[in-house]
Design goal:
Length: 214
């Protein structure tokens, strides 16, 4: 009987302090969320097979500020996946990088009413894929063809970019649409991952048809 009473009292203790507990967990959430969002960039670039024609886009959002992380096989952007060596290849890389930089808010489209703008960017036009051996069968066939055209150039590369953004209005409940295929036709699919202080979700968009809800 004493044991039952003690358990009951313990339950009452937590019930009586539930508002305090809720606030405590909310504060912890606010403290650790920036750390988790920062880790998103690591996981966004480190995981996932190298798949031609597929872009990976991670969106981290806290309040009205956030980061867009993009990873896509170089072949889908430049038509080759080795590091640029010739003048022509270097020119193609520069043009493609500038195109993404200039049109990022058309590639990742926020609701215009939010008045979002880019506040900073980091672009790596050729990053070696850490999962270089993880390819599907279709990629293997395509890569053999690419190697015949360009010769053996080592590991496969990716275009990677990080864009900081800020919106003037709360994005909660709005939609983000995408336009990668419009600018780079070889990118037929985009895998989107959203991590925010209110929601975590993912969606796959094919040929720019689809959206993600904030």
């Amino acid at each position: 009987m004493k044991e039952c009473t003690r358990v009951k009292c313990l339950g009452n203790f937590f019930c009586n302090f539930s508002p305090w507990r809720s606030q405590m967990f909310l504060n912890i959430h606010k403290i650790f969320l920036p750390i988790l969002l920062g880790m998103t960039s690591i996981f966004a670039y480190a995981f996932g097979a190298h798949e031609h024609g597929t872009a990976k886009i991670d969106i981290a959002l806290q309040d009205k500020e956030g980061t867009i992380y993009i990873k896509v096989p170089s072949e889908s952007i430049y038509n080759f996946e080795h590091e640029a060596k010739t003048d022509v290849e270097k020119k193609n890389v520069k043009i493609a990088s500038e195109k993404i930089k200039k049109n990022i808010l058309q590639i990742v489209r926020f609701d215009p009413s939010l008045e979002c703008s880019i506040t900073g960017e980091k672009i790596n036009p050729f990053a070696v894929d850490p999962n270089d051996d993880e390819h599907d069968e279709d990629d293997a066939i395509e890569e053999k063809s690419d190697h015949k055209k360009h010769g053996k150039h080592g590991k496969h590369g990716n275009f990677q970019a990080e864009f900081k953004f800020k919106c003037n209005k709360d994005a909660t409940g709005s939609k983000i649409s995408f336009g990668f295929t419009n600018y780079f036709p070889k990118v037929q699919k985009a895998i989107i991952q959203l991590n925010s202080d209110k929601k975590q979700t993912s969606v796959t968009v094919s040929k720019d048809k689809g959206y993600i809800q904030l």
